[in-house]
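Structure ticket #2291
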Amino acid sequence: MAVFLPLLGIWTLFVVSSYSWRLEPTDPFPPPILLKDEPHLQKVFNGLEQGIQVASTESSHLWDTDNTSFAIAVTSASETLWTISYTAANLGNYSNGLPGRMNDQTYFRIASISKVFTVLAVLLQEKAGKCSLRDPITRYVPELQDSAGAGAGIIEWSKITLEALASQLSGLPRECQHIITKVMDTLADSR
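Resolution: structure written out below.
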């Protein structure tokens, strides 16, 4: 796997460097304009497919092909430009009993990966002057301010800042969905 990941990094660098000339960094940043049938993209995608094909052969042993599955999609602002997937021999069955299969419609649990994009969005908003990392979250979700009785005494919402949330130092319990649900239910009942 260590050999394959740098290969992806090289191709990713190529895609970024090939199309960086189109973007004039401004605030806010415009989405890149990429078309599925552009020769540069097709060359990159073909190279990626060949690299993945070589890496997924049993003789290369770059990863455990019997137990590792993946799906990769490259998208633009308006369409899917390229997809590829690989299904491990030992993937097994889904909970509904059907055989497991990776493709461009497979749902994945992304866990904490989405936190990076959320924090990036907040940082871009701060750079644009639309918020401050020092702002309490009650400025953006005022309903939490009025949550007396629903989570009261458990979470001091007005003391939690965007910065604390972004750095995961807010003091919120790991699984606090039940508290947030209770807050929202209480507010809905009071209206």
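Closing remark: Residues 39-55 form the longest helix (17 residues).
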